[in-house]
Design a protein that fits this description.
By secondary structure, the protein is mainly α. About 80% of the residues lie in helices and about 0% in strands.
Length: about 210
């Protein structure tokens, strides 16, 4: 991989990472509820899933997608159902100050948040299409070395981490405006709507 193609790929991944979709909406919703730091495991789960798709694309993801389309469909449905469930939980979260502060501390385990991020990315058709359709425009897959694949994986890790955590920090800053019980109720419902919308997007997208 040339320096020019590596740089172009990094910029493309960065832009891809901040493009509105289920992953971005989930990060926003979590940051609004629990702060930017809590989004790191979820972001890493998404990134690991993306890197696996990247490696699969280098090894022939189009063929895999053709023969395992049913598996992708099952993963997508599971991911969508989980997001809808989380949206419901956020929508019905407590709104009094004491209960709200308690709910902020109940962020879930790191493993659960990582798995949530992994499922969101693994079940998102946009991720699959990106690596099938756009990866060959940045590199010749027929002559890729293991070093090229490793470099592309590192660039994906850095680019997506910057993009996703930037969104988390932005959403976290917005959290400071939600102090009154009425505002906190609006925050809960906004975050829940965002998360449920991400689930509906996955459920309806093919």
């Amino acid at each position: 991989m040339t320096v020019e193609s590596a740089f172009s790929f990094f910029i493309a991944v960065l832009i891809f990472g901040i493009t509105p979709g289920p992953g971005v909406f989930a990060i926003m919703a979590r940051a609004l509820m629990h702060g930017a730091t809590s989004c790191l495991p979820m972001a890493l789960g998404m990134i690991v899933s993306d890197i696996l798709y990247l490696i699969a694309a280098c090894l022939g993801l189009a063929t895999i997608a053709t023969h395992w389309s049913e598996l992708f469909t099952v993963i997508r449905i599971i991911g969508a159902a989980y997001l809808l469930y989380l949206g419901y939980k956020m929508w019905t979260a407590p709104v009094s100050s004491d209960e709200f502060n308690a709910s902020k501390s109940q962020k879930g385990s790191v493993a659960a948040n990582f798995l949530q991020g992994f499922l969101i990315s693994a079940s998102n058709p946009k991720v699959i299409l990106f690596y099938i359709a756009f990866l060959p425009t940045f590199m010749d897959l027929s002559v890729l070395s293991s070093g090229d694949i490793a470099l592309a994986s590192v660039l994906t890790l850095v680019g997506l981490l910057i993009g996703l955590m930037a969104i988390a920090v932005f959403a976290d800053k917005a959290r400071g405006f939600f102090r009154s019980p009425r505002a906190m109720k609006g925050l809960n419902r906004s975050a829940g709507s965002i998360m449920a919308g991400a689930g509906a997007y996955l459920a309806l997208r093919h």
